[in-house]
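Task: encode each sequence below as C-alpha cells.

Item 1
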Amino acid sequence: MWSDLRHRIRALFRRERLEKELDGELQFHIEHQTEKYLGLGLTAEEASRRARLEFGGIVDVKEQYRDSLGICFLDRAAQDLRFAVRMMQRSPGVTGLAVLIMALGIGANTAVFSVVNAVLLRPLPYIDPDRIVTLASITHDAPSALAQQVSIPDFQDWHDQSSSFEAMAYYSSRETAVMIASTAEYARVAVVSPDFFRVFKIGSVAGRILADEDVKAGGGSAALISYRYWQSHFAGDPHALGQSLSIVSASWPIVGVLPPGFQFPQDADVWVPAVGPPGERSSQNNLVVARLKPGTSLEQAQNQMTLIAARLEEQYPDTNKGRSVGVTRMRDEIVGSVRATLYMLLGGVTLVLLIACTNTAILLLGKATSRRREVALRTALGASRRRIVSQLITENILLAFIAGSLGLLVAYIGSKSLIALAPSNLPRVAESETDRWVLGFTLGLSIITSFVFGLVPALSASRIDLNESLKQGGARAVRGGGPFGMRGLLAIAEISLAVVLLCSAGLLIKSFVALQDVALGFRPENVLVMRATVPVRPSVGIARARQFFSDALAKIATLPGVVSSGATMAPPGNVDSTGIYLADRLPPRAEWASAPRVVLSIVAPGTFQALGVPLKSGRDFSANDTTDKQFVAVVNEALVRKSFPDQSPLGRTIYCPFDTLSPMTIIGVVGDVRQRGPERESMPECYMPYLQHGFNGATLSIVVRTAGDPDSLTTPLRRIANDLSPDVPMKFTTMEALVSANVATARFRTLLLVIFAVLATCLAMGGVYGVISYAVSQRSNEIGIRMALGADAGSVLRFIIRQGLMLSALGLVIGLIGAVASTRAVTSMLFQVRPNDPSIYLGVIFVTGMAALLATYVPAKRASKIDPLVAIREE
C-alpha cells in the first residue's frame, strides 16, 4: 500500500520523467515482441506490425495507466479549470453579477456565523470550561424565571454538604470608586471567596493570587488586578506590585496580575477577598460558581443539590421555604438571553443565502441554455453527459470560490459592523474573529453553494436533443418553456423565502414600534445623569456622602438652564435592589417568605420632578426627612393596587427589610415606572429618602432636567463635584441614552432582520425581472406576430405583467404558508404583537405585489415596443 502511495505521489510531481519511463517501457515490450517474430522468420516490417497489433493501442494503454494513478483525473480537472476561466472571460457581465450576489450571501452568512461562533459555539477560555457551572437559588413554582442570588450561610451549607464539586466559590461585583494615588475613577471590583480562582484554574502572570490568609487578615489585605488594568494604569510596570488601591476608603495592596483575557465577572478590573461576617440567611447578595469533579455529570450534581436544598428547607423554613438550587453550565448561563436572537439572525441570513443561490441559478440557467449548441457539438464529438456536467460544475465551483474569497472581505466589514451595532449586554461579541472555524465555514459554504446554484443549470444544459440543437441556431434552440419553466420555479422559490423573511421582519418592526411607544412612567428627554460615588464606608462615613450630595444638589439647582434636580440609587430602567415589603404590621419571620416582592429605591428630594414621575397623591420627600424624624416612604400605584386596593395608603405603615426594620409612614403615591425596561411591566416599588438610609447612599445618580441640551451641563457638574470632593469619580450619560440601551437588543435584531429582508426582496425581485426578461427575449417573435395580427401595445403590456404577477402570487402564497409556521419562532421576541397579526401579512402582500409589479413592468414595457415587421422577418 505504501509503495503504491509513493508511486502515485511520484506520478503527480514528476510527470515528465514518468512519461519518459512509460514510453521506454512500452517500447521495450514492442521491441521484445518484434525480436520474437523475427526469430520465427518474419520480415522486419511484418514482425513490427504484428507486435504492435498484439500489444494494442499505445495511447489506450497510456490512458489506462494514467487512470490507475489518478493522473488523468488531474489532467481533466486542469483542463476544465482552464476552460472555465475562458468561459468567464467571454461573459464578464453575468460572471460579475453572479460573483457579487454570491459574495453578499456568503459574506453575510460568514459575518453572522463569526458572531455566533464567538458567542455560542466557542468554548469559554478556561481549562475544561464545560465543568464550570453556576448555582442559583430558585423557587419551586418557577425555577427558570426566578433565579436569584445566594446568601453566604446557604453557600456554606452547599459547600460543606456537597461532594460533586472540585471547588465552589461565591462572588459579587459592582462598579465602585477606586483611587490610584490622587486619581479617582470607576472600576468594576469583584469581591470573591478563596476558592474563586480554583474554580477557573487560573494563576497569575505576576505576583500571586489570593490565599486563605488574605481572608483571615480582614479588609485591605490584598488585591488582584486584570492584565488590561495593569497595562492601562501601570503600563505593565512590574513595580505595580506592592502599590495600593484605595477602595471604599480602605487601602488594598496589589499582590498579583491575572492573565490576559480573564475578566470574569462582567469585565472586572480588580478582585479583592470577601471579608467580614457571613450575614443573615435571608440576605441573598452573592452569585455562585463551581467546578464539577471529573466524571461527575451535570444531572448528578443537580440531583445532589436538590436533596441538599430540601434538607435546608426543612431546617430553615423561615428563610428557605419553597427554595431549591439550580445548576447550569456557565456558558449556557452567560449566553442564555441572546441565544434565540443569534439563532434567529443566523436563520434569516441563511434564507438570504438560499435566495442568492436561487438568483444565481437563474442567471446561470440562462447562460447554460444559450450554450446548448456548444454542448451539442461536444456531445456529437464524443463527450459523455457526465463529462459535460463535470465541466459545468467546475465552472460553478470556480465561481463560488471567487465569490467566497470576496465574501471574506464582505464578512470582515460585516462582522465589524455587527460588533459596532451589537448591544452592550451581548456577551463575548468582542471575541469575534476570522479564525480557522470561520474560514472552514466559508470554504464549506462556498462548496455547498456551488452545487446548490450550479447543479440545476448544469443538468439542464446537459439534457439536450442532439439533432434538434444541431439543426437550430443557438438562440433559436432555447425557445419554449415561458416564465413557468425551471426559471419560473426558481423565482417562485426565492419569492416564498423572501416573504417568510418579510413577515418576520414586519412583526419585529411592529413590536419595536410598540416598545418605543410604551408609556415608561417618566419623561427621559433633556435629563442629564451623573453617577457619583463618595469613597466612604457606609457604616462609618455615610454622613460625608449625604453632605456631598446635599451640597451638590443645592449648587446644581442654581445653574442656568436647570429646571429641577434630584438623585436616585438607580435611574429608571435599572434595578439596583429588590426585596420584600410588609404592610401595616411586622409579622413573625416565618411569614416573610410569602411576602410580596418590591423594588427598593433610595432617592433625594426633587427626584420625581426631575424625572417627570407624576405625584398622584401626598407629598414628595423634603430636606427635613432625616434620621431623627419619623421614617417615611413613597410608594407607586402598583404597590397600592396590590396591598391597598380601593383605599388610600397615606398614613399607613410599611416595612421594607433594607437597611433597617423601622416602620415607615407612607407620605405619597407616584405613578408606575417601568423599572426593568419598557418590555416588562412595573413592579411594586418603595422609595425611601437618602437622608434616612445609609445602605448604598454613598453611590447615587444625580438627575438634572434641563431647559436645553443636557450634555452642555456636563462640565459645570464636574466642576461642582471636584470642588466639593476631588476623590469622587463621576460618569455622565443621559436618560435618553439609558432608555435606548434598554431596547438595544430589540433594535439590533430588528435592524438586522430588516436588512436581510430588504436584501432578500431585492434579490427575489431581481429573479422575477430576470425570468420575465428572458421570457420576453425568447418570445419576441411570437409577440411580434400577435401585434401584427391586431394586438395593441396595451394588451401585450397587460399580458406580460399578468404572467409576472401570477409568478409572484404563487411565491407569495407559498411564502405566507411558510411564514405562518415559521414566525412562531419569534414569538418570545415580540412585544404586544401576535405572531399571526393580519396587518403584517396584508402589508407583506402589498409590498410584494408592488415590488413584483415594478420588476415585471420594465420587461413588459420593452415587449410592448417590439416592431412586428422586424420580428416577422426574423421568424
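Item 2
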Amino acid sequence: MLIPGTRLGPYEIVAPLGAGGMGEVYRARDPRIARDVALKILSVSRHGDDQIRRFQQEARAAGALNHPNIVAIFDVGEHDNVPYVVAELLEGRTLREQLREGPLSTRKATEYAIQIADGLAAAHEKGIYHRDLKPANLFVTTDQRIKILDFGLAKLTGSGGWVTDERSTDANLTDPGIVLGTAGYMSPEQIRGQQVDHRADIFAFGAVLYEMLAGKPAFSGPSAFEAMGATLQNEARPLSESGRGIPLDAEEIVRHCLEKHPADRFQSARDLAFDLRRLLAQFSSGGSLPAGLPTRKASYWLALAALGVTAVAVAAVIATRSRATPLGPSFERITFHRGTVTAARFAPQEQAIVYTAAWDGHPSDVYVAMPSTPEARALGYPGSRLLAISSSGDMAIATNPRYAAFERFVGTLATLPWSGGTMREVLENVEEADWSPDGSALAVIRSVEGGAKRRLEYPIGTPLYLATGDLRGPRVSPDGRAVAFLEDPADLGLAATVAVVDRDGRKTTLTSERSDARGLAWSPDATEVWFTASDGGERALLAVSKAGRERVMARVPGSLELQDVAADGRILVTREDERSAILALPPGGSSEIELSWLGDSGLGDLSADGRLILFGDRTRIYLRRADGSAPVRLGDGYADALSPDGQWALATDPETDQLVLLPTAAGQPRLLPRHGITAYRGALWLPDGERILFNGREAGRGLRAYLQTIAGGPPRPITPEGTSSLAIAPDGSSFLAISEGAGLTLYPTEGGQTRVLSNSEPGDRPGGWTKDGRAIWVFRRGEMPACVHRIDLTTGHRRLWKCLAPHDAAGVRSITDFRITPDGTSYAYSYRRVLSDLYVMKNP
C-alpha cells in the first residue's frame, strides 16, 4: 500500500481507492496540468513478466480508444519496477452498485444501453473486444454518462483462462478483469473455449440490458458452473413475465442479442445502437409503448395467420393495427458496404433505387439496387454524382464535379437513361438539379458571376431566383408550378431556411433558419415540404406546410438525411455517422500519427516548431503535444490560432460569438470587445503577438478582414467585402486573402497595392509560409486526396509537394485543414469521415 505523498513518475499519490487481485488503485495528482487521475499499479509480487508485459500492452490498446463512453487512458509507465496505468478519475458508481437498488425504467435502461453500444462500436471498429462486459465493469458518472471500464484487459489471465462468479469480483471496482469472462454474461462460444469475436460482447450486452430491465440476471445459478450451464441450455425468462410492463420491442432487442449462435445475433454494435435509438425515439415522440404491444416480427405472423381466414378479416386486422400500434417508422436497409452515400433517388421502374456512393475507399460511382437484394450494380460512371431521375427514367448527373465549399460541388450537367446509355452534356457550372414532373425540363442551381452567386433556373435559361448565399436541394413540385429549396443566406454551411419560388419568381420563405439542414422533397400530396434538420439534437425528419406550419414527422436519432420521397409515401434516407479526425507528422517522425480525441476533432493551428497542436472537438478547445500525449482542455469555443509565444489560444466563444483569448497555462480567459462586429469567422495572430487579423462582418455588411490589437482597440477593415484572410507572412508585412471563385491575393497589412498570385488556382488554401517568406504551401480544401503544392512567390513556379490522405480512406470526404511548419519537416491535417447507410423508411 502506497502512502499519500508518494510519487510514481510525475504523479503524486493522494489517497487509496481500492485493491483487488491484480493490484491497487489510487487517486493521484498530475501537478504538470493540475489534474486528479486514477493511478492503477500491478502487484508485481503476484504476477510474472508475461502478465506485466500484457498489462502494459493492453493499457496502451485501451488508450487508443478515444471515446466518451470508454474510460480514458492518459499514460502508462513504470517506476522502480512497478508498472502503472493512469486513467481519468471518475465520480459516480458502477452499474452493479446502482442495480442493487432495483431495476431501471425502460427509458433509463435504453439511454444507458445506447451509450454502452456506442462505446462497444468504437472499440470493435479498432478490432478490440472486451470479453468481460458486466455491470461491475460499467461505470455511471454523476452526470449519467456510462463509461466502459477495463476495456481489453479481460485477456490478462493465466494460460488456463479460468472463470469466476461475478459475486467474487464485485468489490474490485476498478481492478482489471483477471478472467476470460464472468459466468452469467459470457456467450456460449466463450464458455466452450471456442474462438470469439465482437459478437461475444453483443451477447454480454444483452445480458446486461436484460438485468437493467428485469432487475435480475438473465442466466444464474448457485455456482458459476451452474450459471454457465443455464447459459448453454436455457433461454432467458421472457421479460414480459417480469410484471414491469416492458415493451415487447425492448424484449425483441434483448432476445436478438442473447441468441445462442453468433450468426443469429446483431452483427454489429452500430446496428444495435440504431435499434435502441429507434426505441428511445418512441418515448421522445410521445408514443406509448404498452406491454404486450405486437413487435414487427409478431405482427408479421399475425397477419400471415389472418390470410387463412377471409379477406375481410385481414382488412380488419390491418385496420386495428393501424389504429392501435404506434410503432413509429420502420426501416429497410439498402446498402451494406463501408463508405458514403452522397445522393439517392427512387427510379420509376421496378421499385429500383439509384444512388451515388464511394465504397471502401474507392472513387464514387452511380449504382442501381433493388430493396429485395443486398447486391447493387455499378452503372459505370466513376467520379460522377447523381442529381435527379425523371418520371421517364432519365438521369441527371454531374460529371467531373469539383469541390466548391461546405457540401457544395460544381460540375457539368449531363443526362442519360438510368439503365445505361449515351451520355449527353447539357450545362456547365451546375451544383444541383431536379426534373419537372413530366420529365421535359430541368430546374438547376448554377454558379454565376465567377462563383460569387447562385442562380435558380427553371427551366434551364429562365432565372427564377438569384442569391449571394448558398442554395441547395431544388425540388420541383408535383404540379410543376413551384420549386422548393434550402437557402443559407450567410453561405457558412451552418443553417438554412426552407423556401419556395413560383414560376413568376415570387419567393416565400417557409421556415426560420434551421441548423444542419440537409435534404428536401415535396410530400406526395404536395401540401408540405419535407426536410431533415437539427431539432435540438441530431437531424430529425420535419415538415412545413405552404402556410409555414411546421411539425416533427420522426425524431429518430442517428443523423438522418432525406434523399427522396416516392408517390406511395416511401421515404429514402441515409443514416450518417460523421466524424472529424487529425493526423500529424511530428518533429523527427517517420510516419503520421492520429491525434484525434472525442471523435469530432478539427485542426486549429500548429506551432512553428511542430510540437503543439491546437484543435477543437465539437465546442471544446484542446492543446496537445504532437507526440500523442493526452490533450489539455483550454475552454469552450472554436479554435483559431496559437500566439507566437504559445501562451495564448485565439478562439471564438460559442455563447457570444465573440473573440476570446484562452491562456495555455495559468491565467484567465479574456473576451475582446465587439466594436460593432456581429459575426466572426476565423482569426490569426500577427508575429508581434500584439495584433490579430480576423474575418468578420458588421450589421448589413459582407464578410471582410479586420486588423485589431489584443489590448481591445477598435478593429480596422483592411479588405473589401466578400474577402477573407487566410495566412500572414512571417514578418507580418502582408497576408494572403481570397474571394470566392478567385485565386489567392497578397494584401499589404498596412495598406497598399495588392497582388494576385500567379499560378494560384480557385480553391487554393494556404497551409503555411516558408521561414524566409519566399514561398507558400497550398492545398485544395475539400478534396480527397488533397494534393499540396509549393508556390514560389517570386517566380510563381508551382510544384507538387505531397498528397494527403489517411491510410483508411473509407468514407473520407475531404481534407478540411492543413498546417505545415516553416521548415517543411512537420505538418498536421484534419479530415472528415462520413459513413452512411441507405434506408427505405415507411410510416414516419
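Check on item 2: The mean pLDDT is 83. The longest strand covers residues 827-842.
End of task.
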